[in-house]
């Protein structure tokens, strides 16, 4: 395939040159892309890209990643500046609406979110249908999906007011639903949200407080939680976001789409990795066992991976991992944890991996999840809730991407093609003759 006239590409098929119209599209930053929409009409062939590593499925103004340089921008703002200086709700406004809010806009946005934190009382009944030992991601997925049965007044996806209120409802209610999933698993009473508290503070309150005594949320931990939420808020077209977009492209309501996103996030290659990192550290157990573990990771037949390492897009240090590591030290200091064996083990593992040719040659660096599990564990969050917390944060990214898609006049149903490798047509054979 070679470039020819501007906007077209010459392709050699079976020894014959064919010209197809494939305009080059340029983003604001980042590599240009071929627009292949006319390829099938012009040449009668499709493109093949399992895992979509070389395919842009949409254009978006929300998040930019330069994986080689380790850069992450939300609406142009670097993630480290947002994590240091902003708050989760301010970042939510930025992702949803495109700009950092003025003081007045922020007050209105906060009011909008915080006045939707309660869930319909009937929804409490749903929890009783789950086993107490159900994974909280299973509960989250089910209960968030059920929200569409409660808010019929805001399900017209073509109405901007409905889209706005659904976004508020999701951002506000997901922490309540998540905290209740935890309370249910430990048999404690559900704590109703408190709208006088900040977003992260309220989540920690609903997780940790009990009605029998007052509970004060540690401000350092609330700030750390807020930062963890910021770091997980959006990450352009990852698997769960693409799932939300694909579900949304059919016209499904936003609650159903976010439930689909939660299901997609659950896997250990995606949001389940922070839980998997802690399990891995527990299995390694001691620094002396690291060489054996690394040998297993390198053995292709073992199917063991160094969890919290590697990324589809980052071929450099994930910028979120650096901030996460700093936050980890802050949290451990605040909690007076001088020597955390898990952190020691993680640091040693990281050091060894960063100097090992296997990881260097494959450009495998720590990702956001390598340290987040250690922080959350130190904060007393149970391991099974780690991915749930990721989902709480990512709800903002999902709903922002869904909203952007719904406002895009070029939006159409998502429908990948395939290379069919099955039987060609054959005749049915009666059961006795098979
Ligand atoms: N440990 C060991 N080897 C790895 C790892 C790892 N964590 N990640 C990739 N590789 C190897 C892989 O075996 C392959 O080797 P080869 O070329 O010899 O076959 C090569 O690196 C490329 O791997 P890949 O699976 O083709 O890469 P991918 O882009 O499809 O996968 C990933 C990306 C994140 C799924 C993968 O790196 C992984 O499984 N990491 C561990 C799980 C993890 O930490 N996930 C969290 C991602 S960040 C949070 C989020 O966005 O959800």
Walk me through the structure:
The protein is 48% helix and 6% strand. The chain is mostly helical and 434 residues long. It is globular. Bound molecules: carboxymethyl coenzyme *A.
Number of strands: 8
Shape: globular
For the residues shown, what is the average pLDDT? 93
- Tally of DSSP helical segments: 18
Radius of gyration: 24 Å
Strand order, biggest sheet? 1-2-3
Q: Low-confidence segments, ≥5 residues, pLDDT <50?
A: none
| Beta-strand percent range | 5-15%
Query: How much helix, percentage-wise, in residues?
Result: 40-55%
The major sheet is characterized as: 3 strands, antiparallel
Give the quaternary arrangement of the chains.
single chain
What is the structural class? mainly alpha
Run of helices and strands: EEEEEHEEEHHHHHHHHHHHHHHHHH
**Distinct ligand kinds:** carboxymethyl coenzyme *A
Distance between the termini: 46 Å
């Amino acid at each position: 395939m070679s470039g020819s006239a501007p906007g077209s590409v010459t392709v050699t098929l079976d020894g014959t040159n064919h010209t197809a119209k494939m305009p080059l599209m340029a983003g604001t930053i980042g590599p240009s892309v071929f627009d292949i929409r006319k390829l099938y009409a012009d040449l009668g062939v499709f493109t093949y890209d399992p895992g979509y590593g070389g395919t842009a499925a949409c254009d978006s103004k929300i998040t930019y990643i330069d994986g080689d340089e380790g850069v992450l921008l939300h609406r142009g703002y670097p993630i480290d500046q947002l994590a240091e200086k902003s708050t989760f709700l301010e970042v939510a406004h930025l992702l949803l609406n495109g700009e950092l809010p003025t003081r007045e806009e922020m007050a209105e946005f906060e009011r909008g979110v915080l006045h939707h934190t309660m869930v319909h009382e009937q929804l409490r009944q749903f929890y009783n249908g789950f086993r107490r030992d159900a994974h909280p991601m299973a509960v989250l997925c089910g209960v968030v999906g059920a929200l569409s049965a409660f808010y019929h007044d805001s399900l017209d996806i073509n109405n901007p007011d409905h889209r706005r209120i659904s976004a508020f409802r999701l951002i506000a209610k997901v922490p309540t639903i998540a905290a209740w999933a935890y309370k249910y698993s430990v048999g404690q009473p559900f704590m109703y949200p408190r709208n006088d508290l900040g977003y992260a503070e309220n989540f920690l309150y609903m997780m940790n407080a009990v009605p029998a005594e007052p509970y004060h949320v540690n401000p350092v931990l609330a700030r750390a939680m807020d930062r963890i939420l910021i770091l997980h808020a959006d990450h352009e077209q990852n698997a769960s976001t693409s799932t939300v977009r694909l579900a949304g492209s059919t016209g499904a309501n936003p609650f159903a789409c976010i439930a689909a996103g939660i299901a997609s996030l659950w896997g250990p290659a995606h949001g389940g990795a922070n839980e998997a990192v802690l399990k891995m550290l527990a299995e390694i157990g001691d620094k002396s066992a690291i060489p054996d573990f690394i040998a297993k990771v390198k053995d292709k037949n073992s199917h063991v991976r160094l969890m919290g390492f590697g990324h589809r897009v980052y071929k450099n240090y994930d910028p979120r991992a650096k901030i996460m590591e700093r936050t980890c030290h802050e949290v451990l200091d605040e909690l007076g944890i001088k020597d955390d064996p898990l952190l020691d083990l993680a640091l040693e593992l990281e050091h060894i991996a960063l100097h090992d040719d296997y990881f260097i040659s494959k450009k495998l660096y720590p990702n956001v999840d390598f340290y987040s599990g250690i922080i959350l564990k130190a904060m007393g969050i149970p391991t099974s809730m780690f991915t749930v917390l990721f989902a709480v944060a990512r709800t903002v990214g999902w709903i922002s991407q869904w909203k952007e898609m719904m406002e895009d006049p070029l939006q159409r149903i998502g429908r990948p093609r395939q290379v069919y490798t099955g039987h060609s047509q054959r005749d049915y054979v009666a059961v006795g003759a098979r």
